[in-house]
Amino acid sequence: MFVLQVVVVLLLVVAAVVALVLQVRHDGTEEARNRSLAVAESFANAPGTADALASPDPTAVLQPRAEAARKAADMDFIVVMSPDGIRYTHPRPDRIGKRFVGTIAPAQQGGRVVEDIDGTIGRLVQAVVPVKSADGRVVGLVSAGITTESVGGTVDRQLPLVLVTAGAALLLATGGTALVSRRLLRQTHGLGPREMTRMYEHHDAVLHAVREGVLIVDGDGRLMLANDEAHRLLDLPDDAEGRYVTGLGLDAATAGLLASGRVVTDEVHLVGDKLLAVNQRPTEVAGGPSGSVATLRDSTELRALSGRAEQARERLDILYAAGVGIGTSLDVTRTAEELTELAVPRFADFVSVDLFDSVVKGEEPEPGSALRRTASTGVRKGAPLYAVGEPLKFVDSAPQARSLAEGRAVLEARLKESPGWRAQDLERTEQVVEFGIHSLITVPVRAGALVLGVVSFWRSERPEPFDADEVALAEELVARAAVTIDNARRFTREHSMAETLQRSLLPRTLPAQSALDIAYRYLPAQAGVGGDWFDVLPLSGARVALVVGDVVGHGLLAAATMGRLRTAVHNFAALDLAPEELLGLLDELVNRIDQEDESAAPVTGATCLYAIYDPVSRRCTMARAGHPPPAIVHPDGRVEFAEVPPGLPLGLGGLPFETVELELPEGSRLVLYTDGLVESRDRDIDSGLDLLAEALARADAGPEPTCRSVLESLLPARQNDDIALIVARTRALGADRVAEWEVPMDPAEVGRVRAAVARRLTEWDLEELSFTTELILSELVTNAIRYGGAPVRVRLLRDRTLICEVSDASSTSPHLRYAAMTDEGGRGLFLVAQIAERWGTRYSSTGKVIWAQQPLPADRSLPVDR
Fold first, then answer.
1. 535 membership: H or E segment, kind and range
2. Which sign does the torsion angle of CA 575, 581, 582, 586 carry?
3. CA nearest 524: which of 678, 720, 714, 331?
4. CB count, 10 Å around CB of 799?
5. Quick one: which of 556, 581, 714, 593 has its CA closest to 656?
6. Quick check: helix, strand or coil at residue 448?
7. N or C: which end of the chain has fewer CB within 10 A?
8. Which residues have a Cβ under 8 Å from the Cβ of 308 and sit 6 or more positions away?
9. Which residues pair with 411 in a beta bridge?
10. Domains with residue ranges and CATH for the chain
11. Beta bridge partners of 517
12. SS3 state at 520
């Protein structure tokens, strides 16, 4: 207490000194501000100051006046300056002519400035005021300043008085404390405050803080002390202390133990409905009075606490298992099944999940629509609950309907006593009760503001009903599952949209052509559609183009980009471009796509393979941009991969693409595919190519059997990427269906060519096409002789259509135009376009080819056997 009193007095002294210093400092600062402003204004308004500023040498006039005024006013400085802040006066002459340090803008406008700054002479206050002429103009500025130390002497005068007063108070407090401490020691028999405090703290802790009963019994068997817990456990009367333990109404065994004082450890006694573990020790062992101390612990409560702790641990295990076991796939139905499998039998005996139909399809739930049982699991078979897949419509009083309407869990502790639940289906609910299901919790599946369905937890094996704690666990369990169900719903919606878009962009049927016998497969990835595509494009001259491409990535962006590239290939192919030229234009297109939307991911992962097969020459021209090489299966079963220079993927640009031309025997199989077929997470591309070669070597000769064999051998268990596959068996256009003539550069030769063509059409039994064909040839051959270059050739092909081709060495292409009434020519090509079904121009390394095709009569067509 003595030390406490001294500390209190010292704190008061320190507080008084600090308050004094702060007050004096504040007063000093205010005084400095007032003095600085008053001196500055007095000097600025003094007679002759404005005139001196207008004199030729203001310093000579004002420096003596400023120094005299400074000393008279006891200021640290008085500075007179120009309106721009150039000093005319200063206590230190070497600073005259330099710029003033401080804020002068308000004074330049006619105002006043008072500010606190840290100057070279310490903390000071300075004021700046304007000097005005008779007409009100600011002709100069005056600044006066003083340090705060110069006006802070009050504290030095008052501090000794405060210290003397504090010392006297300290002496009085010390004397009073000594008198009080002596009296306390006499009354406590020499125990100091610390010992007294410790004794009472321990006594209070033993009596009230511990969760064990404490009894002290003297050597005669009299109860000396019993804490509150002992009173509760033994149901002791209020006046128990001081009475014999044998007279407190305890059972004989417990009373005898307490009166005997014998040493026991965790001896169990039944007292009322409690099992008490008793520990007893003598008190005279440490030199104390005779008697014993007994402690009592309620083992019944400990067992209950242990049981609750075990339940809490099990619930944490369930929630942890839910976090890692629910949502392993992005499938709504499978996620619902994972929830039921997790909850049975760890939490409930039967669990059913009912979701809105639209949720299973990936759409947002429609309030009021029917639900469908999506998943159901139980510990026994044959439960009379609704089956999986059955549509449901709950009545308003059913717990499931209430959960959906109110957005909260509903507990039906005893189903037998629940008329609202029974109203759903009286016959079925009676069967449920007879089956042994007696308690129910329904929890809505909520994801944000959306209610996706309801989960029902049923109990039958354990006799006790569900309680409030289990309702909270059910809500937490469903809340975790709801997030994954909603994620699966969103994925299903996006996957369906992307797959629909992609399939709408892919070819639905292959065009009619006679050069190739084709089978194909397209398999979207399980995790999301990608950008794989393929196409078969008939070209002029009975040729066919095959294209396979892959846009890296998944989702709508990849599918949309694929559609743009496929459309571009269609347009470029219509120009009859060579493969390397088409890929070059496609590369430029991808670059433009990337530049259109810089925020989107670039399409530099797009690859493409473009091949053109000519059934007349049986030659195949190919080029690829970063795509896997095509496989060729020869008629004898030998498999090889065409050595096509790979080129860079589309979008990288900078390097031209290279073309390879191969001659394929009739009956060869050309296999084009995307990397999803040969490459996966657990298989590199080299191993995939080896497996592909083995599968092609084993496959039958037809395109369809080849597709089946390849997919059976290479399709992974979980497909993470799209797969596009084309198998094309080559066919040749026989010599009996091809006619070719070389035409000299003489207009008179046109008639000879017409006659030769007419004879060949007669051989082909196509006499009705002779007139139109001769008209087409006359125009095309005449133009070639007149405007083209030698050699001029004519070729006639009988395929699904009659194709007439005229080639020459010139690269100049004719253009269709409408001739005016006064024009002598220009109508021949117009007539060709009107007569022919299609016509066009393609370029070659030696010039150009102008072609026109006509449909064959229905009874003269020559379909190719498949």
1. strand 530-538
2. negative
3. 720
4. 22
5. 581
6. coil
7. C
8. none
9. 441
10. 31-154 (3.30.450.20), 204-303 (3.30.450.20), 326-496 (3.30.450.40), 508-730 (3.60.40.10), 738-855 (3.30.565.10)
11. 729
12. strand
Tokens for 845? 């390394």
Which residues are CB-neighbours of 404 under 8 A, at least 6 positions away? 394, 444, 451, 453, 454
Confidence (pLDDT) at 616: 93
Q: What whole-number distance in Å separates Cα of residue 547 and Cα of residue 540?
A: 16
Continuous segment of H or E residues that includes residue 613: strand 607-614
Contact 688, 510 (CB under 8 A): no
Cα 156 from Cα 146, distance rounded (Å)? 19
pLDDT at 310: 62
Q: Which amino acid is at 161?
A: L
**Angle in degrees, 0-180, between the axes of helices 770-787 and 828-835, rounded to the nearest 10:** 140
C-alpha 482/C-alpha 485 separation (Å) is 5
The tokens for 187 are 């009354």
Task: Please state whether the peptide bond connecting residue 791 to the residue before it is cis, i.e. omega within 30 degrees of 0.
Answer: yes
Residue 286, token pair as written in the block: 């440490």
- Give the C-alpha separation, 748 to 785, whole Å: 10
Q: d(Cα 610, Cα 624) in Å, to the nearest integer?
A: 6
Structure tokens at 696: 């092609």
Question: What does the alpha-carbon distance between residue 685 and residue 679 come to, in Å, rounded to a whole number?
Answer: 5
How is 664-710 classified by DSSP, letter by letter?
A: --TT-EEEEE-HHHH-BTTB-HHHHHHHHHHHHHHS-SSHHHHHHHH
Lookup result for tokens 């006043």: 112
Sign of CA dihedral 143, 146, 148, 153: negative
Give pLDDT < 50 ranges for the chain.
822-824, 864-866
Of 104, 56, 55, nearest to 79 by C-alpha is: 104
Question: Strand, helix or coil at 59?
Answer: helix
CB contact burial 53-83 (16+ within 10 A = b; e otherwise): beeeebbebbbebbbebbeebebbbbbbbbb
- Laid out side by side, the sheet with 516-523 consists of 516-523, 723-730, 669-673, 631-633, 639-641
* Amino acid at the residue 816: L
pTM above 0.70, yes or no: no
- d(CA 235, CA 231) in angstroms, rounded, equals 5
pLDDT of residue 539: 94
- How far apart CA 826 and CA 846 sit, in angstroms, is 26
Picking from 305, 296, 275, the residue whose alpha carbon sits closest to that of residue 229 is 296
pLDDT at 103 (0 to 100): 85
Decide: 364 and 415 in contact? Cβ < 8 Å: no
Q: Output the CA–CA distances (angstroms, integers) from residue 421 to 395, 412, 441, 522, in the order listed.
A: 9, 8, 12, 50
Q: For the CA atoms of the chain, what is the radius of gyration?
A: 53
Is residue 826 helix, strand or coil?
Answer: coil
Residue 195 makes CB contacts below 8 A (sequence gap 6+) with none
pLDDT of residue 156: 59
Q: Quick check: 769 and 775 in contact, CB under 8 A? A: no
Residues with Cβ < 8 Å from 403, sequence gap 6 or more? 409, 410, 442, 443, 444, 454
d(C-alpha 353, C-alpha 478), whole Å: 10
Tokens coding 479? 């809340």
